[in-house]
Write a structure and sequence with these properties.
The chain has eight helices and no strands. By secondary structure, the chain is mainly α. The chain has a domain of about 140 residues. α4 runs antiparallel to α5 and α5 crosses α7.
Length: about 200
């Protein structure tokens, strides 16, 4: 076992909830671990439907997330790092499939959004997203389904995805947005006409 993996396991054991942890703390952590992630697609939908001035940012963040998740799947395929419970380490408080832990998909979703917001100047929303992401990362380690390096890996993959998309987005953002908005206006023409959502 290399030094990095020793450190990874040591940090996990320090953050993982023990048998003496109160039920209320476990319930709160479970809520954070399982529910907060739904705020991300909800926010993207709200922005697209009612904040047209931010649609480009929302679409870019969504693409960064998709690229990062794709990279994450490749890493998991070629380097399937086990989850803590798969090697009998620590305590597990929520059910989870016995699949690869690195990088964390929950971590990627939040890190992709936070990076996209922060690196395009949306500081307030970026900081809020980053704080939620840190809370989710902590909770999933605390509950025993991820290692700390799974979360750092998610951040690294998200930054890489942002960098990979940036030159493409600089060149093709305008025609891509025009096509996306044209499709949106065609598919949702009726609710747009009724004023329920914005054109």
């Amino acid at each position: 076992m290399n030094a990095l993996e020793v450190l990874n396991r040591s940090l996990f054991l320090q953050l993982n909830a023990g048998v003496q942890t109160g039920a209320g703390v476990i319930s709160t952590a479970t809520f954070i671990a399982d529910v907060l992630i739904y705020l991300i697609p909800l926010a993207l939908v709200v922005v697209w439907l009612w904040q047209p001035e931010r649609r480009q940012l929302a679409l870019r963040a969504c693409l960064v997330c998709c690229i990062a998740l794709g990279i994450g799947q490749l890493l998991a395929l070629f380097w399937p790092h086990p989850r803590p419970f798969m090697i009998g380490l620590g305590h597990t408080w929520i059910p989870h499939a016995a699949d690869a832990s690195f990088p964390s998909e929950h971590g990627i979703v939040f890190a992709s959004m936070a990076c996209s917001l922060l690196l395009t100047g949306e500081l307030a929303l970026g900081v809020l997203t980053a704080i939620m992401g840190i809370a989710v990362a902590w909770s999933r380690i605390f509950l025993g389904v991820h290692f700390p390096l799974d979360m750092l890996g998610a951040l690294g993959v998200s930054l890489l995805a942002y960098l990979l998309l940036s030159p493409v987005w600089t060149r093709w953002a305008s025609p891509f947005m025009q096509a996306a908005e044209k499709l949106y206006r065609y598919l949702l023409a009726r609710p747009i006409a009724k004023g329920w959502i914005r054109a």
